[in-house]
Specification:
The protein is α+β, with helices and mostly antiparallel strands and 299 residues long. The chain has eight helices and 15 strands. The strands form two sheets. Strands 3-2-1-14-4-11-12-13-10-15 form a ten-stranded mixed beta sheet. A hairpin with a 2-residue loop joins strand 1 and strand 2 (22-27). The radius of gyration is 20 Å and the shape is globular.
Length: 299
């Protein structure tokens, strides 16, 4: 009976999603847990098991393969291959008929990227990536959008990826006004549209910056002392949500503010942590002193 009761309390996380009302933790079976600022997050990783592959494209892993505790993908090699077999991000689809937006995103001083997202998704992709601000750049067919990405990388040296570690390191030291935060995007937008090699089938979009500081809760965000490096069987996470950006939760804990990348939660069996526990017993990687000095007291 005790084992049945314990199994009924187990949850498997399928990741953080951004809905109209804000971020939600999604669970296998379709349920969601909204994460408004001030909400307490407290869970324990079930003992006696390990992290297993989450499968691919809605299908479970046929062998329930073990996956590394500290990876963010939570897929075995075969399921990862299947998941990317029809992925726009992996550039494996060339005949998608949907229109695509090209966007410029800013994550902090000097941290800009170019990317594409299906028009029907709106700004969801930018919220998922933790973009502090962004502006559309163009709209058109998938391959034209892809060519514009390549053009900006080659001509203006704009990357299409920013490591999450770099995004986290600057969130508590962002410029104070929306205009300051958007300044680098404004300049890049002008230079991008002036390129002569711009694809003809891609309609230029006007500069209209969108700021996510309030949506993420980054205004006056306290500096974080570190980030969760991985979950472990029997480990406990407990803290109050003070901000959420992309897949990251900034949690106020007894150790200070700790960042939890919710992608690390996938593949584990989780149970509610008992009572009003302040325990935090999963590994935390402290931010390096060089980063601290740069950000005026991050540690």
């Amino acid at each position: 009976m005790a084992q049945t009761s314990r199994a009924a309390r187990m949850w498997k996380c399928s990741g953080l999603r951004w809905a109209v009302g804000g971020p939600e933790l999604k669970w296998d079976g379709g349920r969601g847990s909204p994460l408004p600022r001030g909400k307490r997050v407290a869970f324990e990783v079930a003992e006696g098991g390990g992290r297993t592959c989450v499968g691919a494209r809605g299908n479970p892993c046929p062998v329930r393969a073990a996956v590394p505790e500290r990876g963010t993908g939570a897929r075995c090699e075969e399921c990862a291959r299947l998941d990317r077999a029809h992925s726009v991000a992996a550039d494996t689809i060339a005949d998608d008929p949907r229109p695509y937006h090209v966007y410029l995103a800013w994550f902090g001083p000097g941290l800009l990227k170019v990317g594409i997202t299906a028009e029907e998704r709106g700004s969801a992709r930018l919220l998922e990536q933790g973009a502090v601000c962004f502006s559309w750049l163009g709209l058109g067919p998938l391959m034209a959008a892809r060519r514009s990405e390549e053009l900006l990388r080659a001509a203006l040296r704009v990357p299409d990826r920013i490591p999450y570690g770099e995004k986290r390191a600057v969130r508590s030291a962002l410029p104070g006004s929306a205009a300051e935060r958007a300044a680098e995007i404004a300049d890049l937008h002008t230079r991008a549209l002036a390129l002569r090699e711009w694809p003809e089938s891609l309609r230029r979009e006007p500069y209209q910056p969108v700021d996510h500081v309030d949506a993420f809760g980054l205004r006056d965000l306290p500096a974080a002392v570190g980030e969760v490096s991985g979950l472990i069987a029997g480990g406990v996470v407990s803290g109050e949500v003070i901000a959420a950006a992309g897949p990251d939760l900034h949690l106020a804990t007894g150790q200070g503010v700790v960042v939890l990348d919710t992608r690390l939660m996938t593949g584990w069996e989780l149970i509610p942590a008992g009572g009003d526990t302040d325990e935090f017993t999963v590994p935390v990687r402290e931010f390096k002193k060089s980063v601290v000095d740069l950000q005026d007291g991050l540690w």
